[in-house]
Amino acid sequence: MIAERDRRQLSVAEGTCGETIQAGADSARGDDAATLKTEVIHWVVANHDRIEPPLSPRDKQARGLGHDLTGGLLCPVDYDWGDSSVRTAIREYHPHFRVTAFSWPNFLYKDNTFDRNNLSKGLFQGELLVKSFKCIFTSPMSAHHLEGGEGAIQSKGPGHRTRNNVAALLKMKTVQPRAIAYIAVQVRFALSSASSWAVVDEDFNYEEFYLNIVDYLEAPSSPEKAAEIKNLLLWWNR
Known about the structure:
By secondary structure, this protein is mainly alpha-helical. The protein has one domain. 46% of the residues lie in helices and 2% in strands. The chain contains 9 helices and 2 strands; from the N terminus they run H-H-H-H-H-H-H-E-E-H-H. It has a two-stranded antiparallel ribbon. Strand 1 and strand 2 (204-205) form a beta hairpin. Helix 7 (177-191) packs antiparallel against helix 8 (206-218). The longest helix is centred in the first third of the chain and has 20 residues, at 26-45. Residues 1-20 and 155-166 have low confidence and may be disordered.
């Protein structure tokens, strides 16, 4: 039998309970946030030998824009996080360096890297995004086994049977834009220093962030952009 949280979770991801990220899914969102609170930080620190100050999987206080590592992932692509003066301006809430839902954060991009000559290159292909999707919608174990040519739904890693059973029960055979948007919200919250959920965190509005992603993926502005989105979703479902 499918847990009720899974039904609500899927409803949010597919948009069947309304247009906002809060539509009938507060309990599921809280469960997912609790899971990713620890998992995301494990993934973030995995490739770093020494992190100062340390990042705890249990305590979010050191995360957010105040930490060089999580701050770099949260930093809008419009700003150069490698510039110390920019980091200072962001942390001091300078009006020219606001962190809002209307700029894509670095973690959305493949290798957390933004190509100024190709604005959509690698967008929504970030490793944290894919791992978090697999962790929530398939199984936590499957998130640790990303291999070349393997999408978010298809996998042959440990947890394969559980993942397939859940996906089949939920009838979730493909990755849809609203599922990507939902996970992006969850990853952003996991990287933040906020200890409790709120739609608005300083200058950042999570509902606007969700809707901006949905609009980008579901209402492309040109035939060329539509082709890019089609290829992106094929990448997610490869």
